[in-house]
Amino acid sequence: xxxxxxxxxxxxxxxxxxxxxxxxxxxxxxxxxxxxxxxxxxxxxxxxxxxxxxxxxxxxxxxxxxxxxxxxxxxxxxxxxxxxxxxxxxxxxxxxxxxxxxxxxxxxxxxxxxxxxxxxxxxxxxxxxxxxxxxxxxxxxxxxxxxxxxxxxxxxxxxxxxxxxxxxxxxxxxxxxxxxxxxxxxxxxxxxxxxxxxxxxxxxxxxxxxxxxxxxxxxxxxxxxxxxxxxxxxxxxxxxxxxxxxxxxxxxxxxxx
Amino acid sequence: xxxxxxxxxxxxxxxxxxxxxxxxxxxxxxxxxxxxxxxxxxxxxxxxxxxxxxxxxxxxxxxxxxxxxxxxxxxxxxxxxxxxxxxxxxxxxxxxxxxxxxxxxxxxxxxxxxxxxxxxxxxxxxxxxxxxxxxxxxxxxxxxxxxxxxxxxxxxxxxxxxxxxxxxxxxxxxxxxxxxxxxxxxxxxxxxxxxxxxxxxxxxxxxxxxxxxxxxxxxxxxxxxxxxxxxxxxxxxxxxxxxxxxxxxxxxxxxxx
DNA sequence: CGTTTAATTGAAAGCAGTCAAACTATGTGG
DNA sequence: CCACATAGTTTGACTGCTTTCAATTAAACG
Lengths: 257, 257
Fold this sequence. Notes:
Two copies of one chain form a homodimer.
Chain A: H1 8-18, H2 23-30, E1 35-39, E2 44-46, E3 54-60, E4 63-68, E5 74-80, E6 99-102, E7 106-112, H3 113-122, H4 124-150, H5 153-170, E8 178-180, H6 185-192, H7 196-208, E9 213-215, E10 218-220, H8 226-231, H9 244-256
Helix pairs in contact in A: 3-4, 5-7, 6-7
Chain A binds a DNA duplex through residues 152-153, 184-186, 194-198, 200-201, 204, 216.
């Protein structure tokens, strides 16, 4: 596999997962003016309250969304991996309602907001793909609410591991049964509403029970093994397949024109 | 104030809160074929896994989104009040990823999916309004994640009370300082990841401290009083004002045509 | 009224948090 | 190559918020 020439290739691939893009749409996407930028671990891309200025996509590395309480405790609200768009949220809103921060050193493809707007509003299929992407993020958020509200630490940790694995698999980023989880136990705690101490104990328990294997941050487990049961994990909410209904919507409109 | 003639009047008002709709857009919305339907408390409007068939808006009454764990415990992921759209989520996805259930007896304006699609795809301003609505729901979901992950029972309960109040205020549905909270303590527990027993104790504590007043389900508290502090509540995430940026996006596109 | 659903209360148990310290890996400078 | 500093992981003892279980009271309903 040759190295991607255009960082936006990844974006094309991502949006293609939701809905089929025609040749013209793909070209339009790849022709976007885009600037490559590297951010260090824990650097901020977006800050709550700021007016949005641009749209960014993760080319390599990992990132997360986050909110803080008044007392300064942090809650991670979503995780993002290469190919994910980080700013579609803010394209239409007047200010950011959360923070976006890097998990690892990451390369970002930054597209000026006006160019994005133009693209999304003139190419209906891309507009649909973006909407679908937003809807799927909302679906994931609902699953996280379920995870935080109704599952204990053991199931929560297991669920995050399953979700991350499934998403890496979908992007072709995992090697077999395992993957490098790019998070400290502190960060895992912030994502799961737990303390790092309890994350540690829980991971250790899962390992002791033979449900996962760990080597530093490298985690592995059988994708359809016991962990999934512990996590009560069903990948349906990730909407990994292509959305036929959206295509139908488009078809209906095109037919009318 | 005369009774609304068209149930979709409410929808117009709701979308107008996000972005200005022209006369033609308003007329198009009101001209949608729509059927009024009444559902009883706890009736299902949408079931997880089902393919979506229609779009519904709450005309009167309250509803919520919900997911279940394998063991059958329930987590409410969002609350909805008159004027809220309940199915924009599913317009573009192949199946429902959560359940939608009534909190009280409710009147729904049901619009066939095809008609919605047609409207949204042919009237860009309405399409934008719908997208904004979805983005705001996602923002609220992130705040709920923060609430569940990082606040204790006291703050969580206070936060829900503040949010509900602020949203009712925004829709002009509250009378002064108070409102009827249309939920049992069991349902409050399901929304906040707590047990009904603990909800009871917490409400009682808040009442004992003079932060709220209760009379059956009727709750009142000063909108800018101590409760807001306890809840760490900042209404920013609700994006209650009109989104100027979306209008700008539109303006740019129109200018180009 | 009797029945059902919701709210309230008490006692005991448990999951997760807090605090503190030790340990490990990694990187830096001498 | 070693001493030291730093960040992250691991462990133990103790505390505490929330749940569980059970029972009682209150309100809503036909």
